[in-house]
Amino acid sequence: MGLRRIGLIFWIYFLDGLLLSMASNIGQNYTFVLREKKFTRLCTTKHMLTVNGMFPGPTIHVRKGQTAFITVHNEGNYGVTIHWHGVKQPRNPWSDGPENITQCPIQPGKSFTYEVIFSTEEGTLWWHAHSDWSRATVHGPIIILPPIGKTYPFPKPHAEQTIILGSWFNGDVKELIDEALATGGDPNISDAFTINGWPGALYNCSNETIYNLVVRHGKTYLLRVVNAVMNEEMFFAIAEHKLTVVAQDASYIKPITTDYIMIAPGQTMDILLAAKRSPSHYYMFSRPFFDSNAAFDNTTTSAILRYGGNYIAPSNPLPNTIVCLNSSCDGPDGNRLAASLNNVSFEIPSIDILQAYYRSLSGVYTTDFPIRPPYFFNFTGAVGNNTLHPSIGTKVKMINYGEAVEIIFQGTNVLTPENHPMHLHGFSFYNIGNGFGNFDEKTSPATYNLVDPPEVNTIGVPKNGWVAIRFFADNPGKL
Ligand SMILES: *[C@@H]1O[C@H](CO)[C@@H](O)[C@H](O)[C@H]1NC(C)=O
Ligand SMILES: *[C@@H]1O[C@H](CO)[C@@H](O)[C@H](O)[C@H]1NC(C)=O
Ligand SMILES: *[C@@H]1O[C@H](CO)[C@@H](O)[C@H](O)[C@H]1NC(C)=O
Ligand SMILES: *[C@@H]1O[C@H](CO)[C@@H](O)[C@H](O)[C@H]1NC(C)=O
Ligand SMILES: *[C@@H]1O[C@H](CO)[C@@H](O)[C@H](O)[C@H]1NC(C)=O
Ligand SMILES: *[C@@H]1O[C@H](CO)[C@@H](O)[C@H](O)[C@H]1NC(C)=O
Ligand SMILES: *[C@@H]1O[C@H](CO)[C@@H](O)[C@H](O)[C@H]1NC(C)=O
Ligand SMILES: *[C@@H]1O[C@H](CO)[C@@H](O)[C@H](O)[C@H]1NC(C)=O
Ligand SMILES: *[C@@H]1O[C@H](CO)[C@@H](O)[C@H](O)[C@H]1NC(C)=O
Ligand SMILES: *[C@@H]1O[C@H](CO)[C@@H](O)[C@H](O)[C@H]1NC(C)=O
User: Where is the signal peptide (predicted)?
Assistant: First the structure.
């Protein structure tokens, strides 16, 4: 999602395929006005791009299978697009959003109406700008309720609340990414993380700026957690409370009860919270998991879970000791840092790829994306200079309609290995396997879960490890 030092390698296998289709009906329509607005956090005031002046932005509510029309008016200073993260959008790629992949940016003074087609998704997703780093401030939740007459596959919660984890930069995010692209180095790290837009109690100059969730004793709440942080996987926990995860990426899972979650950027989780501890104030904390040796924001954002009713509240909310696993031109050789897949570093074209495809424009992309790593080295061992200087290109892999596809994402030890999220547009996929070290074509497939794998749209590839996913290529485009 961001600009990071990471090498990934992948394989694609084709299996036998099937298809599915879905009827849709019209849901609510929304108007998004993109404009700069003044915000103050950490005693720093800046103008930043927002939707309707909100940070985080407005919530989209739909029911499963509906279609929402979202008209975006750009009153900002530069071109922006919006992506509906995790919405499969059957046969509707023109409304997916990635800048110069499926559309040109919406220019200042212009408008564009997205037709967002929901099909099998149910639960929580999110939307965000898909132009440079504008998603840092331009994002918000998508809540997909069951169809009318249907209920959740768990007892109806007393109430629901969205919890959005975000990043706060004291500087301007556009300047920040422009600076990084110009120098070839890593962008500045964030100054704080936020919960529903507020950094919380543990930062300097951040008093009065903490999000409070008020609950009633004995009731159960559905928390819809979105990781909208720019780069870091985040831990999230609530002091003395268990979390029961019931869905991930708008797909139900077998419930898992845990003290804390780790959530990758782009992922969403639906969590049941039973408010059954002694009435008091409890801290919620979120801090990053980070296993790379690049610089990162190691701060902790907080919010308060506050029981309603009459009781003497402690002067400080009860803390939680958030569990942290062992964490352990400025680019190489005076060059630029670049991410690559199969030794190809993607170059964003100036004409969007979808348009080039439908209008048969040549010279925008080539169809020779390699299906296997061009050169097998010990990906997770002593990698030498392999893929440090990848080739650059706008390469695509064409896939036939109906094919079942398996992709192995192999993290590499090139430069600074790290846990890194991968996200697929237009599909959810089954997470069928993962492991540390190199994927072994002979032995690793035997470890796959082909019985009840979770269906997700974003997955963290472990540091120096691999993930195997499968999906059906059942979502072709449309003229
Ligand atoms: C939403 O917009 C679509 C397309 O413009 C229109 O057909 C539909 O009637 C609108 N729905 C509502 C509820 O306004
Ligand atoms: C990034 O950090 C450097 C060093 O602290 C600072 O000089 C620069 O202004 C920062 N850039 C932005 C866009 O905030
Ligand atoms: C808060 O300010 C103090 C004193 O300037 C500094 O030592 C500390 O690192 C700051 N803490 C954070 C989280 O920025
Ligand atoms: C926070 O606390 C400091 C010191 O007590 C005070 O000066 C300041 O006005 C308070 N408010 C904000 C928003 O920083
Ligand atoms: C965060 O990083 C800074 C700078 O590397 C370091 O000084 C500080 O001790 C770290 N804090 C925590 C809580 O790890
Ligand atoms: C992680 O930390 C635990 C407890 O400190 C230790 O027992 C374990 O060996 C560590 N694991 C790794 C992979 O470093
Ligand atoms: C997209 O293309 C336009 C020209 O059509 C260009 O100005 C813009 O920089 C491109 N965006 C990216 C992210 O490369
Ligand atoms: C790859 O490198 C790892 C880590 O150094 C090592 O444990 C492993 O044996 C190597 N594998 C091969 C096939 O050389
Ligand atoms: C990697 O490349 C650099 C310069 O490009 C060279 O100095 C260094 O010896 C190379 N390292 C290896 C292990 O090949
Ligand atoms: C990657 O591509 C570059 C540029 O074509 C080439 O020099 C390099 O050898 C390739 N590396 C690997 C590991 O395939």
Answer: 1-23
